[in-house]
Amino acid sequence: MQAYFMTISALLAFAANSILCRLALGAQVIDAASFTTVRILSGAMMLAILLLLKAKFRPSTSNIKGMARGKGSWSGALALFVYALGFSYAYVSLETGIGALILFGMVQFTIIAVEVSRGKRFRLPEWLGATVAFVGFVYLVLPTLSTPSFIGAVQMAIAGMAWGVYTLVGKGSTKPLEDTAYNFVRAVPMALIWFAFALPEWRLSASGIWLAVLSGTLASGIGYALWYGALKFIMPFQASVLQLSVPVIAAVGGIIWAGETLEQRLVVSALMILGGVFLVLMSNKLAPQRN
C-alpha cells in the first residue's frame, strides 16, 4: 500500500506540475528563468521545513546534521536543475501535446538506453506493454500535435533526458525525503546564477510567482520526494512507462475540475496506456527471468 500511495501521489504531482507550469508560462505571467528559480527555491524551503519537522518528531531516526554526510548528490541536483530549466523554457514555445510527447519520449529513450548499456535484457511483455502504452499516449495527444519550434523541441528533449537521469539516480535512494531535499538545496545556487544572467528577460507578477511557489512546494518538492520513495519498489523501466499515465491523469482532472467533456479518445487512450502499464508491471510474472 505504501508503494501504491507514493507512486500514485507522485504521478498526480507530475500532472499538477505540468498544469501549473503551462498556466504560468503559457499566459506569460512570469518568465522561464524566474519561474525555475522560484520553483527550486520554494521546493528547497518546503523540504527543509519537512526535514526539521521530521527531526523534531522522530529524533531517533532523523538528524539534520546528517545532511553534511552526503545526502543526495551533485549529479542528481544537476539533473534536477537541467530538467526544470529546459521544461520551463520549452513550454514558452511548445503546445502542451507536443511538449509532453517529446518529454516522455526522451525519458523512456534515456532510461532504456542506460539500462541496455548496463546489460539489461528486456522481456517481450515489457516491450509489448511499453509499445501499447506509448501508442495510446500518442493517440491521446495527437489532436494537439503541431510542427514544434526547433529550439523548444531541443529544450524539452534535454529536459526529458535530464529527468530520465534524475529517475535513475533516485533508484538507489534509501532516504527519499533527505535525498530530494539536498538535491534541491544543491540546485539553488545553479538557479540563482542562471537567474542573474537572465536579468534582461525578467517578467514577474504576483500570479506568476504564486504558480511557481505551488509548483515548487507541492508538485515538485513533495512530489519528487514521493517519487524517490516509490522508486524503491519499481524498476527504472517500469518507472518510465508509468509516467505515460500523467497526461491521462491531467485530462481526468480537467473533466472533474474544469468541466471539460469526456471524449471517446480519452477513454480509448487511457485503456491502452493503463493496459500497457499493467503489462509492464506484471512482466515478472508473465515471463521467466533472463540473465
Write up what this structure looks like.
With 291 residues, the protein is mostly helical. It has one domain (2-286). Helix content is 76%, strand content 0%. It has twelve helices and no strands. The chain has helices at residues 2-26, 32-57, 74-93, 96-117, 124-141, 150-170, 176-197, 206-230, 236-242, 246-257, 264-281, 283-286. This is DMT family transporter. The chain crosses the membrane at residues 36-53, 74-92, 98-117, 124-142, 148-169, 181-197, 209-229, 241-259, 265-282. Keywords: Membrane, Transmembrane, Transmembrane helix. Pfam families: EamA. It is found in: Membrane.
- What's the mean pLDDT score? 84
Using the alpha-carbon principal axes, give the shape. globular
Succession of helices and strands: HHHHHHHHHHHH
Poorly predicted tracts of residues: 62-70, 286-291
Oligomer: single chain
Share of residues in helices: over 70%
Count of domains: 1
Question: What is the helix tally?
Answer: 12
Number of strands: 0
Q: From the helix content, strand content and strand pairing, which structural class follows? A: mainly alpha
Terminal Cα separation, in Å?
A: 30 Å
The percent range for strand residues is under 5%
User: In angstroms, what is the radius of gyration?
Assistant: 19 Å
Largest beta-sheet characterization: none
Please describe the topology of this protein.
Elements: H1 2-26, H2 32-57, H3 74-93, H4 96-117, H5 124-141, H6 150-170, H7 176-197, H8 206-230, H9 236-242, H10 246-257, H11 264-281, H12 283-286
